[in-house]
Write a structure and sequence with these properties.
This protein is α+β, with helices and mostly antiparallel strands and 232 residues long. The chain has helices at 2-6, 9-14, 24-37, 50-60, 69-76, 80-92, 116-127, 129-137, 151-157, 182-196, 207-211, 216-223, and strands at residues 67-68, 96-101, 104-109, 143-149, 172-178, 200-205, 226-228. Helix content is 49%, strand content 16%. The strands form 2 sheets. A 4-stranded mixed β-sheet has the order 6-5-4-7. Strands 1-3-2 form a 3-stranded antiparallel β-sheet. It starts with a helix and ends with a strand. The relative contact order is 0.11.
C-alpha cells in the first residue's frame, strides 16, 4: 500500500525532471555577477590605486609641463615599468598626451579632452595640495590650526575650477598656527613639495598672533582666500 502511494524508485527515476524557473531575484543576481565580470571601460581607468591618483596629480595640477617617465618614477618612488603602464593606459583613454623625442617619451596633460576639467577637480580634492598638506603637517607637535591661503585656497573655493584653459598656480602657501618649530614646518613643506612636484611655502604663527589684528602680513592673508584644513 505504501509503495502505491509513493511509487517505486524506478518509476521516480523515469519521471521527466521538472524545470524550476529561477526566482526573479536569482536572475537579477546572475545578471549582476555577469556585469561584475565585465572589464572596466577603457575610457575611465581612473583611481585604480593611490599611485595612479598621485601620478594624475603630478600631471593635471600645477603649471602645464611635460615630464619623462623616469622623472615620474623618481617623484612617485616607484619603478619605471609601473609608471609606463599607468601612463600608457591613461593616454589610450585620452586623459594624457604622449610625445616621442630622441631622448624618450614625454607625457603631459591633454587639456583638449572633455574629461580634463572634471577629472582635474576630482584629483585636486583627493590627491591635491589640501590632502598632501594635511598628511605631512597635521602630525606636527603643537599644531592648533592649518590653512591654505593664496591662489590654491581660491581654487578650492571655486566650484568651477579648473576650466579649460585656466592655469593653476605653481605655488602652495600654507599657514601653520600653533607652537610648531619653523624647522619642522620647513621639513614638512619640503616633503609636500616632493609629493606634489610644486613649491610649498609654510608660514608659522602662534595662536595669539593669528587672533590679533596687528600683523600686516596676516591682514593680507585674511583679505584673500583662506581655506581652513580640518585636523584629524
Amino acid at each position: 500500500m505504501r509503495s502505491n502511494v509513493l511509487g517505486s524508485a524506478a518509476e521516480f527515476r523515469r519521471r521527466p525532471a521538472r524545470r524550476v524557473r529561477p526566482p526573479v531575484d536569482s536572475h537579477l543576481a546572475q545578471v549582476f555577477m555577469r556585469d561584475l565580470r565585465t572589464p572596466a571601460p577603457p575610457q575611465l581607468p581612473i583611481f585604480r590605486s593611490r599611485r595612479q591618483g598621485e601620478l594624475l596629480a603630478r600631471l593635471l595640477l600645477g603649471p602645464e609641463r611635460e615630464m619623462t617617465m623616469l622623472d615620474l618614477a623618481v617623484m612617485l618612488r616607484t619603478d619605471l615599468g609601473t609608471v609606463a603602464g599607468e601612463v600608457e593606459r591613461l593616454a589610450r583613454a585620452g586623459i594624457l598626451r604622449l610625445r616621442r623625442t630622441p631622448a624618450g617619451r614625454l607625457v603631459a596633460r591633454d587639456t583638449s579632452s572633455p574629461m580634463f576639467a572634471p577629472l582635474a577637480r576630482l584629483v585636486m580634492l583627493g590627491f591635491g595640495p589640501s590632502a598632501v598638506v594635511t598628511e605631512h603637517f597635521a602630525p606636527l607637535p603643537g599644531i592648533a590650526e592649518l590653512h591654505l591661503f593664496g591662489a590654491w585656497a581660491g581654487h578650492y573655493a571655486d566650484d568651477g575650477y579648473p576650466s579649460r584653459g585656466s592655469e593653476p598656480s605653481g605655488e602652495v602657501e600654507v599657514l601653520v598656527v600653533g607652537d610648531v618649530s619653523r624647522e619642522a614646518a620647513f621639513v614638512a613643506a619640503q616633503e609636500c613639495a616632493a609629493r606634489l612636484g610644486l613649491p610649498v611655502h609654510a608660514v608659522v604663527r602662534s595662536r595669539a598672533r593669528w587672533r590679533e589684528d596687528d600683523d600686516p602680513f596676516l591682514r593680507e592673508i585674511r583679505s584673500g582666500h583662506v581655506l581652513r584644513i580640518p585636523l584629524p
